[in-house]
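Sequence in, structure out. Go.
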Amino acid sequence: MTPARHLVLGMVLTASAGLIDVVGFIELGGYFTSFMSGNTTQGGAALVDAAWPTVLLTASLIGLFFIGGVLGSLAAFSSARWGATAVSAAVMTGVALTLILSLSGFPATQAMLVLAASAGAQNAILPMRGAVRLGATFVTGTLYTAGQDLALAVRGAAPKLRWLQHLAIWFGLFGGAAIGALLYRWLGIGTLIVPIAIYASFAGGHLLAARKSAV
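Output:
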């Protein structure tokens, strides 16, 4: 079982992912900054229809998400002590840059690419604890694992309530998306201030923990 503290942190990060994804979804008119399965499906359909602007947009979002994941992982692996701080700060900076670009008049098809890279990097902030993937920006696998764990629990081969922890992470994404959609009605692109504050808090928390471990 994943400790409650880590589970809550994972839910908060996943909620932040849901929030930035719904902002990107609205800004881009139906495309995603962290749900690459959706972008891949839309890109494949657009390719057959020779809808080249859509092919380019979805390919760019997927490519930037991939690059963000690579860079985030490199930063996380670079130092056991400071890696999480670096990734959190980088994600915060990326979301802040997206906000600045949007407010400066850059079109969503450009500004949201930075958000996609940030979403990719976010997956490296928290390592798995127990069997639960924490703070991820995608939950399809999480839902499958919840069902798998429930099946194992029925057979007595897994903790009885562990499947609920996977569902909690899914709920984090769902809740974050709902909150993001609600805030967007009032704040528009300014909704990104909320995840910026969340990533800043994680960066600060990781920094304090790293300094304590260095003493």
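Check: The chain has eight helices and no strands. The chain has one domain: 4-208.
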